[in-house]
Amino acid sequence: MDGPALSTVSQPSVNNCRDCRYFHLGHYPSGLGSQVVPEDRRVAVIAGGVGAAKFLRGLLKFYPNELVTAVVNVADDFHLHGLSISPDLDTVAYTISNQVNPETGWGRTGESWRVMTELEKLGGHTWFSLGDLDLALHLYRTQRLAEGATLSDVTREICASWGITAKLLPATDTKISTQLKVRDKDWVDFQDYFVAQQHSLPITDVRFSGIESASPGPGVIPSLEEADIIIIAPSNPIVSVNPVLEISGIRETLQSRKETVVAISPIVGGAALKGPASRMLEELGYERSAVGVADLYKDVAAILVIDEVDAGLSSRIESEGIRTLVTDTIMSDPERAAHLAKATLECLFSSKEGPL
Ligand code: FO1
Fold first, then answer.
1. Mutate which of 73, 92, 128 to test ligand 1's pocket (most atoms within 8 Å of Cβ)?
2. Ligand 1: which of 195, 199, 235, 239 to mutate, most ligand atoms within 8 Å of CB?
3. Rounded to the nearest whole angstrom, what is the distance from the C-alpha of residue 195 to the centroid of ligand 1?
4. What does the DSSP 8-state code read for residue 32?
5. pLDDT digits (tens, 9 = 90+) for 250-305
6. C-alpha–C-alpha distance, residues 155 and 169, integer Å
7. Structural domains in the chain?
8. Helices assigned H by DSSP within the chain
9. Atom 25, ligand 1: which residue's CA is nearest?
């Protein structure tokens, strides 16, 4: 099988790779193509939940895990039943350690629901489904935070116990919370909007409370400064990526390294593969397409990866000053996610304008 088509980005060339080792055909899962990517470069990924988790699982299938750092959104984090819940960190960690529920994309595979069933009988809060196995993680995190550990410490401990060798960094250890202004109504908390209301309410604004005083988590800025490639995963640009970029120093770091940054559009054919991203774009005044995504990323990314069905948008996006790579972006299984990750790495390694 041929590798993904590199459309408007120049074809891969080994000439612009410095002294390096390469990934050849045999190092990739079958069918990943024969183009070459150095295997000694550090990769940082700005990540939200399900889309980012699938992308990371694809990347980690073939790329040296210890060279990959994910900087993960924590503005969805909240408290329920007295527990500290970090949905995006958990979704990423469960997915890359092959423990995720494949049907939902979040929570654990092989889960049981005895606690929720009992809680329902008592009339407790069951709108946010926490399985028995998942609850163990929340108990652990809550206890460690109460003992004075930071979210970064706890995340490192969880990763170590699950054998995750890629680095997972909370974007910040400071408490930040996404809130959405509902049209003609008040502000609502993110999980209330997203889960309790099934993201059905029209919104007119988004804010990240606490972000003004939030500093990047330990290792976040160094990992972005030292990365040879920074990838913005196919996550919701407004409520997953933006709360990471808005933390002091992160957007500026990406802007100063723009030629190393490639973003992947989570919008395909005008719709988000999961969640309300495309509707949110429209409600907040952006075009409901990859063009709207380009608008949000043109100051931080040199290249936007868009799906084949959106090839016709390429020239409009490029006229905004962001180059495009057209490829298959649907991550319906880990093999396809690995193809996308490989195409994403290659487009920077092969880009004439790129630094590599
Ligand atoms: N999403 C839902 O739509 N319904 C749920 O009941 C739900 C429970 C849940 C539990 C743990 C967890 O880590 C994630 C969970 N999610 C649930 C997903 C989640 O809250 C959202 O997808 C993200 O916050 C958006 O990135």
1. 128
2. 195
3. 7
4. S
5. 999 999 999 999 999 999 998 887 889 999 999 999 999 999 999 999 999 999 99
6. 7
7. 5-78+165-349 (3.40.50.10680)
8. 50-62, 87-96, 114-122, 132-146, 151-161, 190-191, 220-226, 242-245, 250-256, 277-283, 290-297, 314-318, 334-350
9. 49
